[in-house]
Design goal:
Layout: E1 14-22, E2 28-37, E3 42-46, H1 53-60, E4 68-73, E5 76-77, H2 82-86, E6 89-92, H3 104-114, H4 119-132, H5 148-159, E7 166-170, H6 178-193, E8 197-201, H7 205-211, E9 214-219, E10 222-228, H8 229-234, E11 238-246, E12 260-265, E13 268-274, H9 279-288, E14 292-298, H10 302-322
Helix pairs in contact: 3-4
Organism: Luteimonas aestuarii
Protein name: ABC transporter ATP-binding protein
Domain ABC transporter: 14-245
């Protein structure tokens, strides 16, 4: 029997090479996906519904069989040494899948038992994780009585019971309000700061920009862009501003060559302009039109703009190849 391998020093936390998945229906969900996630990274996987995110996560977490390609976790081949690789991974699925009639403490301790962790070790570990998730005061109440945000945090706490080196979260804040979401962000930042590599799939682009250092955008089963968050955002050659106006806007807005402007309402202007354009040109045009600016702010949809643009470029490239 081949002994289980140990993680390889310096290996990526996750390495995917030419990963392909074709379902029995003929749907090609993944078309040769390759990516690396560095140890300690906080990595975002973005893409529209049906892009292949769930299939990729399913294969990495050994819930979906691949058609072809290679996956390794800290240098441990997932296909050749599944058990050893899976011991390095914690998964928080999108669906809440614990027993609602169990208590949070029991949910965590029983989960640890599935991985061979003795109860004497699991109990203090469960207390630690429930306290980190701000759930210790709920540890002995029925899980069904928890709020939606508490249930999400319980899912994360459960995944951390095996002390995974790689934590994969599939839409972890779906359906929770912004206050709860931000609280979960803090928990995830703490887990990452303690050394756990995190891969996050999310529809909340603000979430990815706030948490993640690197990202990959997937569409129609292919990676259309990947790299450092800051570098990808720097590719945007357009800046957006919102201007709050004193008084009422004129019927005809000024024409600024190279810029696009629209009135959000009678007192707000939305402007997109090339990054190289001098803002003084904008203010000169405003002054000539009798528009007085009370305040201005940058628009916060940079990542969304990048996402839409990269998806469009990827679709154009695939269309060209098909032609």
């Amino acid at each position: 029997m081949t002994p289980n391998p140990t993680p390889v020093a310096g290996a990526p936390a996750l390495s995917v090479r030419d990963l392909r998945k074709t379902y029995d229906t003929g749907v090609e969900a993944l078309k040769g996906v390759s990516l690396d996630v560095a140890p300690g990274d906080f990595f975002a996987l973005l893409g529209p519904n049906g892009a292949g995110k769930s299939t990729l996560i399913g294969i990495v977490s050994s819930l979906v069989n691949k058609t072809a390609g290679e996956v390794s976790v800290f240098g441990v081949d997932l296909h050749a040494h599944r058990d050893a690789a899976m011991r390095l991974i914690g998964l928080v699925p999108q669906e809440i899948n614990f027993n609602f009639f169990e208590k949070p403490l029991d949910i965590l301790v029983n989960y640890a038992g599935f991985y061979g962790i003795p109860r004497s070790e699991a109990l203090p570990r469960a207390e630690e994780e429930l306290k980190r998730a701000l759930l210790w005061d709920k540890s002995r109440t029925m899980a069904r009585t928890l709020s939606g945000g508490m249930k999400r945090r319980l899912m994360i706490a459960r995944a951390m019971m095996t002390r995974p080196r790689l934590l994969i979260l599939d839409e972890p804040t779906a359906g929770v309000d912004i206050e709860i979401r931000r609280g979960m962000w803090q928990t995830l930042k703490e887990i990452n700061a303690a050394g756990t590599t995190i891969i996050l799939t999310t529809h909340y682009l603000e979430e990815a920009e706030s948490l993640c250092r690197n990202l990959a955008i997937i569409d129609r089963g292919a990676i259309v862009e990947q790299g450092p968050m800051k570098s990808l955002l720097a590719k945007l050659d357009v800046e957006g501003f919102l201007f709050d106006i004193d008084g009422t806007l004129p019927a005809a807005l000024p024409d600024i060559p190279g810029a696009e402007m629209r009135a959000v309402d009678d007192h707000t202007l939305d402007l997109d302009m090339p990054r190289a354009m001098d803002l003084n040109r904008v203010f000169a045009a405003f002054e000539a039109a009798g528009i007085r600016v009370r305040s201005m702010r940058t628009k916060s949809n940079r990542l969304e703009e990048l996402f839409v643009r990269m998806i469009a470029q990827g679709q154009d490239a695939q269309g060209s190849q098909a032609a």
